Amino acid sequence: MGDAFRPVVIGVDIGTTSTKAAGYDVDGGQLAHHSVGYPLDEPQPGYAEQDARHIHAAVLESLRTVVAELDRPVAGLSFGTAMHSLIGLDRDGHPLTPSITWADSRATRQAERLRAAPSGLALHRRTGTPVHPMAPLSKLLWFAEQEPVLFGQVAYWVGIKDWVLLRLCDALVTDHSVASATGLMDLSRLSWDAEALGIAGITAEQLPELVPTTTVLPGLTAEAAAATGLPRDTRVVVGAGDGPLANLGLGAVAPGVMACSIGTSGAMRVMVERPGVDPLGGVFCYALTEHRWVVGGAINNGGIVLEWAGDALAPELGEDAEEELLALAALAPAGSGGLIMLPYLLSERAPHWSALPRGAYVGLTNGHRRAHLVRAAMEGVCQQLALVLASVRGAGNEVREIRAGGGFSRSPLWRQMLADVLGMPVRFPAGHEGSGFGAALLGMQALGLVPSVDVAAELVHIESTAYPDPAAAATYAALLPLFSELYDALVPTFTSLRRLAPGLSPE
């Protein structure tokens, strides 16, 4: 078949800070791509929200640009999205609220109260979503208690991808993957959970229709077709959450193969064939397809920690100082001379699923210098991921291989440090890192262009492997229990600091 006739699927990744669209052929080749950014608004402490209209405009622009660059017809679109977003709509589908993102922590008190309730852990295990302020369930409680008039005016509660699809295709649907990250869906039944709805104070009729991730919508509205340059009968695959799709993008689709990603935040996920959460509730469980689920944990603090280190510890380096910071960190030894950093600058998620913690340096002496502080910050990110790995294993899941991607993977120091801290070889695929490629692969399965998403393992090629250095790995193995113990030891301090926080502004 000539190239001009080979099918192309556009994967659209609706992220926290940008939307990326890219066209792929069935061999995994990327033919065109475009990204459009938008702001994350923080009008008050703990708020992290966006204007949904800006994101819709970014989707249209990214699609329009990619379509113009392609020299062949588009077989379909397929979507991925940042998980845990929440938007309230009126009866006509117009937003009454901003898009409240996963990073928003305004519902901390509601989440803590629900988590401490007798049904809290059972709710987590039944829905797969930790009881945490990131979850739409907790956000709905906040709206009910803090904005009751607005709460009563909302006709539909949706996620950002749901709203974009409503604008593009005039269909109010949400996929099982995104729904499994709301805290509102029963994993075993793939239906809205009656108890969760009762806690949230909403009805199933206020939520989108639940559909499989491979559901194909028949086409675009006339307005969307005109704005993107696509035919109205372009098929649109509903798609999934960015976490499960990132596993596809890294080729981590077989049981036992873990995907690790570090961007601004970070996550570790392994595919399983049946849903389930460990008895202690240390992991999440989100859907991908009927027979593919991911179990894992996300952390709030990834590359953002290195950015903070540059701003706070080496401001003279200016912006775009990543290479200089990494060179500085490389001057310090593994273990940073006994200096430990809890990297909870943006609070934290897995494996404790509490919004309470704050960052801390422990073990500081007059022998430590700036290089030690920067390296300890990076090590803290890797050690937090090691705790997530332990929780995934503690949930009864085998992890025999780790594949990693994200912005950090460009750095040899980050690569080696991750392998040393995890105590396992870490494999780095070439090219397609991220949920955009995963969305395209899922779309290819839905459109019958590939037999299943399992082809990801064949299409994603390993570029390099980082092997643990025995001495460094032994150092980190000795420090990890101390790192883990510090969280529990500092909970009373975190609690007191939160109580005092209103009078202790950093400004």
Please explain how this structure is put together:
This protein has 507 residues and is of the alpha+beta class. It folds into 2 domains: 3-243, ATPase, nucleotide binding domain (Nucleotidyltransferase, domain 5); 253-433 and 469-501, ATPase, nucleotide binding domain (Nucleotidyltransferase, domain 5, 2-Layer Sandwich). A hairpin with a 2-residue loop joins strand 17 and strand 18. It has helices at residues 52-69, 108-116, 120-127, 136-146, 148-153, 160-169, 176-179, 194-200, 222-228, 242-249, 303-313, 322-329, 370-394, 412-422, 435-446, 456-459, 470-500; strands at 8-14, 18-25, 30-37, 49-50, 74-81, 87-89, 99-100, 156-158, 173-175, 185-186, 191-192, 209-211, 216-217, 235-241, 257-262, 266-272, 284-289, 292-299, 340-342, 360-362, 401-405, 426-429, 462-466. The radius of gyration is 22 Å and the shape is globular. The strands form 7 sheets. The protein has a 7-stranded mixed β-sheet. It is built from 17 helices and 23 strands. The model has no long low-confidence stretch (mean pLDDT 94).
